[in-house]
Structures are given as structure tokens and as C-alpha cells.
Amino acid sequence: MTFSDKPYGEQETLLHRMIKQIRRSLDLQEILTSTANEVRLFLNTDRVKVYQFDSDGSGEVIAESINDQILPSLLGLHFPSSDIPEEAREMFLLARQRSIVDVANGKIGLAPLRSAETGKPILEQNIYYRNLDPCHSQYLQTMGVQSSLVVPILQYDLKEKSTKPQLWGLLVSHDSQSKTILPQQLKVVQQIADQVAIAISQSNLLSQTREQQQREGIINRISTLLHQLPTIQLQQALEESTAALGGIGSRLYIVHSQELYTWGIQPQLPNGLGNSVIEENPVWQKWMEQCSPGEIHVISDIYQEAFLRVVAIAFQSTSIRGMMVIPLHYRENFIGVLTIFRSELDTEILWAGQCDRNLRQNLPRLSFAVWREEKTGQAPNWKPEEILLGQALCHNFSMAIQQQQTNQELHLLNINLEVKVQEQTAELQKSLLFTKSLKQVTDQIRSTLDFKTILQTIVREVRSLLNSDRALIYKIIEDNEDEIIVEEINGNWSSVLGIKLPLECFPDDSIRLYLDGRTKAINNVSTENLSDCHRDFLVNLQIQSNLIVPIKTDTKLWGLLIVHQCQAPRIWQEAEIDLLQQLADQAAIAIHQARLYEQSCTAEAQAITKAAQLEHTLYQLRETQSKLIHTEKMSALGQLVAGIAHEINNPVNFIYGNLRHADDYTKQLLDLLQLYQSQYPQTNHTIDSAIEAIDFDFLIQDLPKIISSMRVGADRIRSIVLSLRNFSRLDEAENKSVDLHEGIDNTLLILQHRLKRNSAFQGIEVMKDYGNLPKIICYAGQMNQVFMNVINNAIDVLTEVTETIQEQTNPDFLPTIRISTRLSSDNSHILISIADNGPGMNEDLKNRIFEPFFTTKPVGKGTGLGLAISYQIIVERHSGLMECISQPGQGTEFWIEIPVKYAN
Q: What's the count of helices (H) and strands (E) in the chain, helices before strands?
């Protein structure tokens, strides 16, 4: 090629016009097409094309401009990697080397912008000529090209300026005749390539931002479905996730409940391989056991994975080829797996000439005619952004499933608690009823010395309490006097008064067993193991079920207290047997008055004690239920705080990251304006009017201040978000190394809106006196809960009493909270003091301050659980000490001591 000069001003005008056209559009394809047209017109050549490299070194012509079809179109055609050797691509990248080829003269000129060894710019960009390789010459002649210009296009990462650029593609000019290229033209084309590189980077950044927004929108929709109450929409969330990842089928398997949600095309294991659910197959389960929390598995071709050979049989009848497997973990526990299936693909690539892949054949290309390469059943690839989306889905599904299981367990626990409470209440009521009836019988026995009246009272109360058909007392104390001496009947059943038992029908040792305290309960006469004589005797008395307890006086068997069920069989309960035995004891007491009094008092005392125990148990159950509910609320609050902090963090980082660029661009624009003012001090009337209208001088001064204010605001939001995340600590282990000062500061930051001055309140001053504390091992989230409860209570007290104190006793009163931390003299304990200068409290209130449900706040403003739970966290969870120090008029101080467990 030869060089000639053109007017410098004309080239600069063309350069500015071309740069303006490139920057005018956000559509990359439009930019590249416009660039090809403008460069072709600028160079007056036959064809200009934009060539983009693929990851394997091959490339495709993605934009093209041709002059009157002098050269054939190459748009959309692919070229193999061997067409541009790897060493040439390296020089394009490292030295940013341009090449100018003159086929007729067999010369190629190389013009590097940078040194290939040092990477530094070359001040004198000379062109070094050498002989053209015959293979290269034949390649261009086959294309109909006699001269060419090749300029590399690099890609830069605008987010990470420190990273090295990558070779994105080439800007190529072809001409069917020898072409003269001006040195200034080469410089202009290089500048155009640099602008195209910027446009490509900006387009990539815009695409990434849009993809991130789309991904966040998908995650928000799925998160909404997964956290809907009262029912989590797992099926809809599964369908949304499948559509977002381009799947043709999906599965969600939950280990705890063995639930399986499916959508779309599904694999099916043959019957001979055991369970048809692939997640329950031993091979699949062993794979899941080896997965770490947060690990995502993407498989392009399931038939190429050796460890899946057994389960791959299930996919042979489907079009499934690839899959994304997302193991779901909550902390370290495996709770399920989400699987997305992708279909196999049919691909078609248009090549510039048939590509011979035999590496031994390095002959030049003979033809560039279009060659269509078709492939069927190809494995789909997974993009990095899809893997990021999978990781987000992993987190959301894990949290939702764990929350669902927690809610179910809590619901079941509440049901069990309610059932236990109801059972305990029923037993308590029944016990109280029995106790009351027993007391009534005792009182009636005590009220008279008439033996018959006492016995009649006993059988009447027994029949009524047990709701039986007949109750009686059988006397067997003396020979020939054994008979039924008193009875109570409900209904039209026959009387059995005066009847004697046929002792020959009973076992010989019956009397001895009754004397030993045995009771006899027959639930069904027809099925019980009885002698024929005994069964006939009971049937004759219309008895289908009976209950017998002995009446003993001292060491003798005085008689039997008996209950009959005549209408139907009956299963006797332990409580009923116990009651009947107690009434039998009362009958024995009637025989001996002194013993009556003693046993009566004992029975009453036992009944009262039992009632008190049951009542205390009921109170403990209610207290436990309240604590569980409160703990669940605090956990939900922590999750909400962590979720909000996470959602705010992304847009704030985006704003904060762009503020520095906005500041730089603003300064550059202002510097440019000042340069214009210094170079062109004389302006016309239109410019003067515009400067006056916008108050140009004030704008120059105020614009940097606005940017600075925005940066301060962004910093403030980031610090608040960081404090919310540190305060919730949901992403950290429960018992870990923490800085307690950080927890206190985060708590104060969250409560800052209650501490600041406003129109109705003068604000609260916080005085911090921090000692030099080491990091210690503790439950960080629970310690933050303690700080929140104590400081929040202090704010409540100071907010309520400040106005009263200023009006009545001290106009200069300034509400203050003092926070002090120290390490004990023997370095064994952390000492924390949180004190206020409020009105204090008396001894009675101070002694009850840590009692559950005790509060001095108005109804609806306090639960009475905050300090009680704080005391439990310090004393029980951390083996520490928590005390309240207060006197009326002297403020209140909470003193906290926890043992030091040094972090490694």
C-alpha cells in the first residue's frame, strides 16, 4: 500500500461525525453497522466488516458494509480459529498491532501501538514491512481481496478498571484493488476502533444491568410466592423458576415431608430400579450427601456424567439433555433439592467455506462459498448469570421451605399445647369435681353419728359421681351376717338389698386379696374370664359391668363398696377406681370417727395439692407458649431486617458506585467549559442569554456540592444497611466471635430516630465510655436483643418523664443514657453498664422487673417479656449476671456481666 496526505481538518470532521454517530445509539448492532458504513465511506474501500471472536478462537462477521457488491457479502458467516492463528491474536491483544496488506507487492505492514514485551505505548508508531506469507496471500486472493487493513477491537471491563482488556474482534477493510492508506487515516480508524471498544463495554454494562434488573424482578416474584401467608405457593414458584431458566420440566423434592412438586416433562425410572422417585434413588442420595451448602451443579449432558449412569436411564424416553441441580440446605442440614431440566438443541452454523478439521492439512482455503453445518441433539450450556439466578433461588427456596417446616412445627406444637392444656384442664376439673364431692361426703359423714345415714350418703354420692345404674355396700365382717346393707338405684332396676354373695362361686383367696387392697373391675360380664356360677349370679342381678373396692378397718376386711352398670358394658377409668376407693375409705372412717377425721383431712390436702400442681403446670405451659411465640417473632423480625438490608444494598451500591463516575464526568465537563471560556472569551448574544438564564456561575459552584451531598447520603444509607445486617446476624453462626461494641453501636444506630431531637422532644444524649474489650465467643444475635430491650426501655422512660421533670422540678433537665464497658480486673468477665437519669423505681418494682409478663407500661404498650428474656439470655445462655440498680429519683442502671470466652 502507498500513503498520501489529506487535509487534517477534513479527517477531524469525519472523526467527530463518526464518533457522534457511534455514541448516538445504545443498540450495539446499530453502532457496529453504522461504524462499518462510515469507515467504508471514509476509506473509500470496497468492503468493511466487523469480526467478533468466539470463546474457541473462531469468529463471525456481525456487521458489514459493501460498495456496489464489488466483493461478496460475508455477513453472518463463521470462520474457523485456524484462519487467524493464535500468535496473531496475541499480537492483536498485547501490542494492539494493526496490519496493512498489499497482495500485489507481496508485502504486509505491521504497526503496533504498544510494546509486546513491556505493554507500554510506543511513541513513534512506525510501520514495519515484511514479506507476505504465501498462504496468507492465497487466502486473500481467494476472497477477491488485493489490499486489506485490520485494526483490533478490545473489550474493557468498566466495573473493574484494573483488569486487563480482552480481544473482542477486528475492524477489517477489504479492497479489490491496491489501496492507498493515509497515516492520518490509520490514526482515525484506530480512534474509531477505540470508540467502538468503549461502546461495546458500555453496551455490555447496560446488558448486564438489564439482566440484573430482570433477574432481581424474577427473584422478587418468586420470593413473593414463597413467602405468601398463610400458604406458601411452592408449585407456582417452581413454574416461575422453570420459565426463568428456560427449562422444559422441573422438580422440587422436600426431604422432611417427602413431598414432590413437578412441572413439565419428567424422567421416569424403570420399575426394576426400586423407587420411581429419582431423589430417593441411592445413587442420587449419595450425590446429595456429598454436596456442600450453596453448591450449584450444572450439567450440560447427563449422558456424559459417569456417576449418573444408573439414573440416566430415566431420561432416555424424553428430550431432556441438561439439568441444573440445586441442593437446598438450611445452615448445614440438607432439606431438599430443586432440579431444572433443559431440552437437547438442534444447531445450524453458516461457515465461509467448508471447514476441514484435519489439523494435518494446512493448505490455503480454496473457496469461501457458504457451507451449512447442522447438528442435532446438542447439549445446552448454562450461562454464568443463570447460575447466579440458581444461587438466588437456592437461598429463597431454602428459607421458604425451612419457614414452612418451622410454621408447621410451631402450629403442631401449639395444637399439642392446646390439647395438653385441655386435657390438663379436664383432668383438673374432674379432679376438682371429685374432690368437691369427696368433701361433701366427708362433711355429711362428720355432720352425723348415724351409721345408716353415713352409708346411704356414700352410695348416693358414688352412684351420682360415677353416673352408674346401681351402687351398694356389702358387709362381710361376721359369719352369717354377710349381705347387702345399703344401695342406691337409678332407673327401674331390681333391688338387691339383703342378698348374700355365693362365696362358693368365688376363688378361695378372694377375701385375702381384697384384704390386701385389691380392686376388681369387670368391664364386660359376657367376655370376662369368670366361672359359670359367678357369671350366672351377675346376670341374674342384671349386671353387665361392675366395680368392687374393699372397705377395711385396721387389719380387717369390713365390706365391699360396689358399683353396677346394668344397661351396657363399661370400661372403668383409673380416676373412677381411685374415687371409689377413696369413698370406701370414708365408709371405713365412719366406723371409727377418729380415723374418719384423719383420712378426711389427708384426702382434702392431697386434692388441694394436686389442684395447685395442675394449676401451676397450666401456668408454665402458657408461659412456655408465650416465649415460643415471642422467640418466633424475634426470629421473623431478624429475617425481615436482614432481607430489607439485602434488598436495599444492591441499589445503594449501584448509586454509590456511579457517584464517583458522575463526579469525574462533572469535573471534566466544568474543566472543558472553563477551557472554552479561556480560549473563546468572546461569546455571542445567544450564549450570554443562556448563561444568564441558568445562573451559570452559581451552577458551577453548586453542582459539585450536590454531588458531594449525594455521596454523603449514599455513605449514610450504606452504613445504616450495614448496621441492619450486622444487627440481624442471620447469615452468621449463633455462637461465634463478636465485638460487643459493634453490637451496641448498631443498636444505637437502629434506635437513632428515637434519640434525635424533634419538634415535640428535645432528644436524648448518649454518653459512651468504652473500654478495651477483646472479641469474645457469644450468641451475637441474642446479645443484640438484650441491648435493644434495655436501651429501648431507657428511651421509653426518658421520653415519658422528660417534659414532667422540666415543668415541675428541673427546667434544665437533659435526658441522658450512659453506656460503659470494662474488662474485669482478673480479665475473666466483660462488665457492661447501661444507665439512664430517669426517675428510677422503688424496691418493689425493682424486685419484679425481671418477672415474665410484668410491665409498668400502659395496656397495649408492653408485653412484660423483654427484660425477662434478656435476663434469661444473660444468665442461662451465657452463664452471666444481670442486675437492676435503682432508687427513686436516682435513675436506673442495668449491670451485665458475662464470662469471657476468648476467640481464637
A: 21, 27
